[in-house]
Amino acid sequence: MTTPDLNTFTLARSAALDNLINAAEFVSTRTDTLDMIRAAIMVELHATNARRAIISQARAEGRTWQEIGDALGVTRQSAHERFGQ
Fold first, then answer.
1. Domain span at 77
2. What is the pTM of this model?
3. What is the DSSP letter of 74?
């Protein structure tokens, strides 16, 4: 099994952030509050995907679970349990 190179993680992160930005822009164009709620759920989903992509890139760059946990405001163990593969 081959390990993806750093460029793969960078592309995934960029795509996830683009999706997040697009979803946020979509929310801002809604006028109906129920549409806003539905769009906000999309933003949450894309934010979760972006966070995972960024964490994967951080690991590929050699960042430790301690560093990632500190950035997330959780313990290294919690970060690893939630985002480790």
1. 6-83
2. 0.74
3. S
Residues with Cβ within 8 Å of residue 52, at least 6 apart in sequence? 16, 83
pLDDT confidence of residue 74: 97
Cα–Cα separations (whole angstroms), residue 15 to 19, 73, 74: 6, 25, 26
Q: What does 3-51 look like in DSSP terms, one character per residue?
A: PPPHHHHHHHHHHHHHHHHHHHHHHHT--SHHHHHHHHHHHHHHHHHHH
Q: Is residue 1 part of a domain?
A: no
Question: What's the total number of domains in the chain?
Answer: 1
pLDDT along the chain (85 residues), means of 10: 72 86 84 88 90 93 97 97 91
Residue 67 lies in a domain: yes
Amino acid code (one letter) for 15? A
Residues 47, 15, 29: CA angle, nearest 5 degrees: 60
